[in-house]
Design brief:
Two copies of one chain form a homodimer.
Chain A lengths: L1 E3 L9 E6 L11 E16 L7 H12 L3 E10 L5 H19 L6 E8 L6 H14 L4 H10 L8 E9 L2 E10 L12 E6 L5 H13 L16 E6 L13 H23 L7 E9 L2 H13 L1 H8 L6 H8 L11 E6 L2 E7 L2 E2 L4 H7 L4 E7 L5 E8 L3 H8 L4
Parallel strand pairs in A: 4-5, 8-9, 10-14
Antiparallel strand pairs in A: 1-6, 2-3, 3-4, 3-9, 6-7, 7-8, 10-15, 11-12, 11-14, 12-13
Chain lengths: ~400, ~400
């Protein structure tokens, strides 16, 4: 497997576009299209929030009942959540309009939205945007980039990645894009993530690969602890790579899963590092836990802690906050048996062990915590299980962005 | 029952003091003493964090095994958490020194600490501070106030309250003080809270009253979601009011519990409203829930949500964030069946119902959200259960305080 340049248009048969539709933002692309020239198998994971946005309900139905999918229409600016029946009608109008223009059934069109909750959707502007998207769609890297930029809200950078993997002599490509960067605390799903691949795979095995892939990627990141109403990850597979169809957990399936995991992990980390207001990617790596589930819980507790996040922002070696967050995670352990390290590209420092602070240099600790990627590494000395979670620091900018998001 | 002026020195037989000990802060009182002239029954609740500060371990033992308690020694500045054996030795030294000077057993002395985790305790300065405290102790309101001020860390105001209640013709007094204001997310306990009362009550009934009282008070507040290593609530009862000893759940017990609840609720709300960096007390009131437990879970989910807290700070009627937080709380409900209101002293506005935004005035909504106490009122229409939780907004100042807390 190797990483290549590109994104959602890298795999064979996929086209994309971005367009200015003025849904809410002005003077920027705010709608995106992902389109496959041939029908695709589709798998998805969605928010566990009881309050589900209309596009989530639409897409769940497409994933579960449609024979195939072939296009995804996305807008940023307004979330189409808490919008009642008009919100559901809007999804239908978008799908019908795109389906008509693309010559595919409305039931093969997925929709996704991100932005302000509770605001009414401007159906006319969305449909006008779809016309622009269909006219502009192309299989080029530029078109993929346009799409990745159009789905951004408070993101500061677009997020895309692509990889190639050989399956039975055939080159299979997987490309993906996603957007963060607030209300990020995915649970069995993510914010908006779109992955396209030309792999030939059964729908059942595709869903199995996707469901497994989110557990250690999107489900291990958090920006603010708020699980969105709109979290959606969609994976489209059109089979154009020509590999023998994957229908069981064989070597090809394993190789595909590894490549897919690379894509989801890459996108998830990008999302965490570009969390609203973030100045650093904040990683917590747990080793030596008694169970995988406990390792995950411990890692997430640390990266979700407001006080830990503020300490990272301040480059402050206030290690007690990380221990405190481990302690209230719900996992039982003996604090006297825990070793805690700070690490980054500037080095690795042993901070706490045997129940007490080690004799470390504050200056060096501050240096390590000042890098753009900081890891709190914790050995629980209870077993063999490991997990890693990713978040970001808590900055003034986060408050600024969110105290005045709608204006 | 009526509220009276005063605090921990209001009940008969209680003395207090504050003193400058330079534990970590300079030029301010940073140690406090609460002392009863006669032995007390004692009850307590403590942090559920696996990482427990040394004073928590010391006090648990006193509450569970000592025949009586008679004094509490508190310091601010350093938390005596993650301090290993030297930390436990420090508690013992403090108790022995105070016991010797006060002429009571070391096992009758409770200790409490709040401040930076992981820093070594300056035992000599603490013992010197205890000498000042014992010399200064008095039964006056001024001495109670000195104690309430000495336990503050990032608090902007001291927090104390006192009430009187008649039990069988005798006046029983309850006084209390507490400190916030960061790492506040108590779980079956609180940050530091101290309540003194002259009620005559059995130890068993006192603990029962205290354990019940924290559920709807301290356990329903959150500043930052971080459950501290040091959370402690101690209640001392010396019996000097002369009421018939309460040994069962009779009318006197009920009247005492009501008065105690008033004190704990008052202190809890003060703590939430003075959360680090807070500009507003942020209340969520849930009515019509199916169970009390679900009502509590829903209310806490809203006041803990970073995005909801940031919206309160920005006076932004971004109601979707409150619905989102209800939705990911873990409680099942139908979003179409929820009514949501904003209320404050400036009025009450119907914001969301039947699955969609109501036709409210943005200007009026902003006005309501600009008050110092703001309530999100939610009717779930599922049953009769109610609960209220209190938090605060998320401000630049919160980040500032916590990015640089140790310096």
């Amino acid at each position: 497997m190797k990483e290549i340049a590109g994104g959602v248009t890298s795999a064979k048969g996929f086209e994309a576009a971005g367009a200015e539709a003025a849904v809410k933002y002005k003077n920027r692309k705010d709608m995106a299209l992902v389109y496959s020239t041939v029908p695709c198998k589709v798998a998805g994971t969605f928010t566990t929030n009881v309050v589900k946005a209309a596009p989530v309900l639409w897409d769940k139905q497409v994933v579960e009942t449609s024979a195939f999918a072939q296009a995804v229409v996305v807008n940023s600016g307004i979330a189409n959540a808490c919008t009642g029946k008009p919100g559901m009608d809007c999804c239908k109008s978008e799908a019908e309009h795109a389906g008509k223009l693309l010559g595919i059934p409305a039931e093969a069109v997925l929709v996704a939205s991100t932005g302000v909750i509770g605001m009414a959707m401007p159906v006319d502007r969305l449909c006008a945007g779809i016309e622009k998207l269909v006219a502009a769609k192309a299989a080029t890297p530029e078109a993929g980039l346009d799409a990745a930029k159009a789905i951004m809200t408070t993101d500061t950078v677009h997020k895309q990645v692509a990889v190639e993997v050989e399956l039975g002599g055939k080159t299979v490509t997987i490309g993906g894009m996603c957007k963060g960067s607030g209300m990020i605390h995915p649970n069995m799903c993510t914010m908006l993530g779109f992955v396209t691949t030309d792999v030939n795979i059964s729908k059942e095995m595709l869903q199995k690969a996707v469901s497994a892939s989110v557990v250690d990627s999107f489900n291990m990141i958090s920006v603010d602890g708020d699980t969105s109403t709109n979290d959606t990850l969609l994976v489209l597979a059109n089979g154009l790579a020509g590999n023998e169809e994957i229908t069981a957990e064989n070597a090809d399936f394993k190789a595909f899963c590894e490549a897919l995991d690379y894509v989801t992990m890459y996108l998830a980390k990008k999302m965490a590092g570009d969390g609203e207001g973030a100045t650093a990617l904040f990683e917590c790596r747990i080793v030596g836990a008694d169970t995988k589930e406990n390792a995950r819980t411990l890692a997430k507790s640390v990266i979700c802690s407001s006080l830990s996040k503020a300490a990272i922002f301040g480059h402050d070696a206030n290690f007690g906050r990380f221990l405190c967050a481990l302690g209230y995670s719900g996992v039982q352990f003996d604090p006297e048996n825990v070793d805690l390290y700070f690490q980054s590209k500037s080095g690795r420092i042993y901070i706490y062990g045997e129940g007490i602070a080690k004799d470390y240099s504050e200056e060096e600790a501050t240096k390590v915590l000042s890098d753009e990627e900081v890891t709190i590494y914790v050995d629980m000395h209870m077993g063999e299980a490991e997990a890693t979670a990713w978040g970001c620091d808590l900055s003034y900018e986060y408050v600024k962005i969110n105290a005045d998001y709608r204006s």
